[in-house]
Specification:
By secondary structure, the protein is mainly beta. Among the domains are: 1-50, no CATH class; 252-467, Pectate Lyase C-like, CATH 2.160.20.10; 472-618, Sandwich (Jelly Rolls). Helix content is 4%, strand content 42%. The protein has 2 helices and 52 strands. The chain has a 21-stranded mixed β-sheet that branches. The protein has an 18-stranded parallel β-sheet that branches. A 5-stranded antiparallel β-sheet has the order 43-46-51-48-49, with no helix packed on it. Strand 1 (12-13), helix 1 and strand 2 form a beta-alpha-beta unit. The protein is elongated. The N and C termini lie far apart (85 Å).
Length: 619
C-alpha cells in the first residue's frame, strides 16, 4: 500500500534525517504487503543511493522517456533510453562489444558540449561542465588523457554514445602514458554525422590513439566497437605507434569491430603500427583512403616485426587511386615475418589499388599467407624495395572484374619461393593477371591450379626468363627420321642432317587455362662452347577447330644450355616472346610439335643431337 505520511511523501533527500525517518516509519507498520512511495524522490547535489544490489522488476518497455532504465523480461537484457531509442547496456566480459556499468576503470560521456570522465563508482573525476580535476571539460583529449594518466596497467576506458573530439576543444589525440593492457571500448560503430548511434572519435593530425612508448615496450592494447574519423584532415591517424625507441616493439595490439572513415587526405593513415608483433586487426570496416596512400601500415624500422593477422575486414571506396590496403614496410635492415591476410573484402570501383604491398625497402619480408580474400575492382599483391620477399603463399583468393586495373599479382625480382595456387582470377578486359620478374633459381616460385576466366588476355606475363615452376605434362617424341637405341649410346630420335625431324603430340588438360612455355629435351652428340640451334614448328587447336588454328614457327632457336660436352643433356625453351601463338593455346587444345635440323649460325653450332621429350608448362 502507498505510504501517505508526511515523512514518506517528502521529495528531497538532503541528509540522513529523511532516511532515518523512513526506517522508523517502515518499522512501525504491521502490514506485510509491499510498501510504495507516494511520489518521486530526488537526491540533493552530491548525494546518491547506496546498496549491495539493485532489483529491477522484469517488465516490458515503459514510457519512452529519456533516462529510463529497465530490465526487459522478454529480451532478457537491461536497456537505457536515450533521446530517440532504447540502447542495450552491454554485459561485462566475453569481448562482446563493451563493458557493463562498473566493469570499466573510466566511463567517458559527452552531452554534446562537454566531456565527462566518471570512475567506476560513478564519481565525476575529470572535466564536465564544472571542469572537475582542473581539466577543461570542453577539451575531449584532455579529459580522456587525464583518465588514462590516472589509470593503471590493465584498465578499461569505456566510451558512451556520442561524438568525441569536435565539440570545440580540438580533435582527439591521446597517448598511453607507457601503460600496458589498456582497453578502449566504445558503444558500437556510429555515423560521423548526427545522430551518431554509437561512439565516434574525431581524430587529429598525427593524433587519434597514440600507442607509442618512450621508456618501455608497449603490450596488450585493445580497441573495439567505435568509429574513428579522419575528417579529410591531412596526416590524420586513427591508431598509431611511431616507436622511435631503438630495439623496442609494440606487442599484442588488437583492433576489432571498428569503423575507420575519412582518412583520405595526404598523409592520413587509419592504422599505423611500427615495430609490431602479435597484432590482430579483424572485423573492421574501412571507407576511403588517400591517393597513393596507405590504409594499414605495418612498419619495421628498428626492431624485428611480424606475427600479424589482418582478418575479415572490409575495404570500401569509389575513388583515390594507387592506395595500399595493407603495406608491410621494412625501413631498416630488420626483418618482418609471419603475416596472415585472410577473409578480407575490397571494393574500389575500377581504381587501381592493392590489398597487399610488400615494401622491402631495407629488410627482408618472409612467411606471409594471403588467402580467401574477395577482391572486387582491386588488385591483390604488388612489390617494391631492394630486399627479398620470401615464402609467400597466395591461395584461394577471388579476384573479380575490373577494367582500369593493373596486374592482380606482381612478382618482382625480390620474390623467393612464392606459391600461387587455387585462386580465381576474374574477367579483366584483357589485362595481365600475373607478371613475373622472379630471377632466383635457388628459390623458384610455383604457379599452379589457378582458375583464370579471361582466356582472351595475357594472363601470365614474364618480364624476364623466370625460373618459376608450373604444372607440366610430358610428351615423348613418337616419330622421326632415325631412332637410336643401341646400348652405350643416347636413346631417342636423331637429328644431325638437313632432312632429319622428330614429332611429339599431346593435349593440355581441360583445367589448364593457358600454355606458358614449351621445353624441348635432348642429348647433344657433340661438344659446344656456345649454343646449338634447332628449328621448332607446331600446330594447336581445340575440338571443332582447324588443325592450324594456332601455329608455332621458330627458326634458328638457340639452346638454353651452353658450354656442354658430348652426351650432355640439353634443352630449348619457347615462350610467347618467341611466338605469340603460344599463350593462345588453352585447356583441351591438342598440341603437335615438330623439330627439324637447323644450320649453324653465329657462334652456335648446327643441330646434332638426340631428341627425347617435350614439356608443356601451363597455368
Amino acid at each position: 500500500m502507498a505510504r501517505t505520511s508526511p515523512v514518506v511523501t517528502k521529495t528531497l533527500i538532503d541528509s540522513t534525517t529523511f532516511g532515518n525517518a523512513l526506517i522508523t516509519d517502515y518499522m512501525s507498520q504491521t502490514s506485510t504487503t509491499n510498501q510504495a512511495l507516494a511520489s518521486n524522490v530526488d537526491f540533493a547535489t552530491g548525494k546518491r543511493p547506496k546498496a549491495d544490489f539493485i532489483y529491477m522488476t522484469p517488465t516490458t518497455a515503459p514510457a519512452a522517456t529519456e533516462g529510463h532504465i529497465y530490465y526487459d523480461s522478454t529480451a532478457k537484457k537491461l536497456l537505457l533510453r536515450n533521446d530517440s531509442s532504447w540502447l542495450t547496456i552491454p554485459a561485462a566480459g566475453g569481448g562482446g562489444g563493451g563493458a557493463a556499468f562498473g566493469a570499466y576503470t573510466y566511463y567517458i560521456y559527452t552531452d554534446g558540449t562537454d566531456y565527462y570522465a566518471y570512475d567506476n563508482s560513478g564519481d565525476l573525476d575529470y572535466g564536465g561542465s564544472t571542469d572537475e580535476g582542473a581539466i577543461d571539460g570542453a577539451d575531449c583529449s584532455a579529459v580522456v588523457q587525464a583518465a588514462i594518466d590516472n589509470s593503471s596497467n590493465g584498465s578499461t576506458i569505456f566510451f558512451g554514445v556520442g561524438n568525441f573530439g569536435d565539440a570545440g576543444g580540438g580533435y582527439f589525440d591521446v597517448d598511453m602514458n607507457n601503460l600496458r593492457g589498456l582497453r578502449f571500448v566504445g558503444s558500437g560503430r556510429g555515423n560521423d554525422t548526427s545522430p551518431y548511434g554509437g561512439t565516434v572519435i574525431e581524430c587529429a593530425a598525427n593524433g587519434g590513439f597514440d600507442i607509442s612508448h618512450t621508456t618501455d615496450e608497449q603490450w596488450f592494447t585493445y580497441f573495439s566497437d567505435m568509429t574513428l574519423v579522419g575528417g579529410n584532415r591531412a596526416a590524420s591517424k586513427g591508431v598509431h605507434s611511431d616507436n622511435a625507441t631503438a630495439n623496442k616493439k609494440t606487442c599484442q595490439v588488437i583492433i576489432e569491430r571498428c569503423h575507420f572513415t575519412g582518412f583520405t587526405a595526404a598523409g592520413a593513415i587509419a592504422i599505423d603500427i611500427t615495430n609490431h608483433e602479435w597484432t590482430i586487426i579483424q572485423n573492421n570496416h574501412f571507407t576511403g583512403w588517400p591517393t597513393n596512400g596507405v590504409v594499414i601500415l605495418l612498419e619495421c624500422n628498428n626492431y624485428f616485426g611480424g606475427n600479424v593477422k589482418v582478418l575479415n575486414n572490409a575495404f570500401i571506396s569509389t575513388g583515390n587511386t594507387g592506395a595500399d590496403m595493407v603495406q608491410i614496410l621494412t625501413s631498416d635492415a630488420k626483418e618482418n615475418d609471419n603475416y596472415e591476410i585472410a577473409g578480407n573484402q575490397t571494393f574500389s570501383r575500377d581504381y587501381p589499388c592493392y590489398l597487399v604491398h610488400f615494401n622491402a625497402a631495407s629488410g627482408a619480408i618472409k612467411q606471409t599467407k594471403i588467402h580467401h580474400n574477395r577482391m572486387e575492382y582491386m588488385n591483390l599483391v604488388r612489390c617494391s624495395g631492394a630486399t627479398h620477399i620470401q615464402d609467400v603463399d597466395i591461395h584461394d583468393n577471388n579476384c573479380a572484374s575490373g577494367t582500369n586495373l593493373a596486374e592482380d599479382i606482381e612478382i618482382t625480382s625480390q620474390a623467393r619461393s612464392w606459391l600461387i595456387h587455387d585462386n580465381a582470377m576474374g574477367v579483366s578486359a584483357g589485362r595481365t593477371q600475373i607478371t613475373d620478374a622472379s630471377s632466383n633459381a635457388s628459390y623458384p616460385c610455383r604457379i599452379y591450379d589457378n582458375d583464370f576466366n579471361d582466356v582472351a588476355g595475357a594472363l601470365y606475363t614474364p618480364t624476364v626468363s623466370p625460373p618459376t615452376k608450373f604444372n607440366t605434362i610430358v610428351a615423348p617424341f613418337v616419330d622421326g627420321t632415325t631412332f637410336l637405341s643401341a646400348d652405350g649410346s643416347s636413346w631417342g630420335w636423331e637429328i644431325d642432317a638437313a632432312t632429319d625431324y622428330s614429332v611429339a603430340t599431346a593435349t593440355l588438360p581441360p583445367n589448364a587455362t593457358q600454355l606458358i612455355k614449351i621445353v624441348i629435351k635432348g642429348v647433344s652428340l657433340v661438344a659446344e662452347a656456345d649454343a646449338m640451334r634447332l628449328e621448332i614448328d607446331g600446330y594447336a587447336g581445340a575440338s571443332n577447330q582447324a588443325e592450324g588454328t594456332e601455329t608455332i614457327d621458330v627458326v634458328d632457336c638457340p639452346s638454353d644450355t651452353t658450354n656442354f660436352a658430348a652426351d650432355d643433356y640439353i634443352e630449348w625453351t619457347l615462350t610467347a616472346s618467341d611466338d605469340t601463338d603460344i599463350d593462345e593455346i588453352h585447356g583441351g587444345d591438342t598440341v603437335q610439335i615438330k623439330c627439324q635440323h637447323e644450320a649453324a649460325g653465329g657462334a652456335d653450332c648446327e643441330t646434332d643431337c638426340v631428341l627425347q621429350a617435350v614439356e608443356l608448362h601451363y597455368i
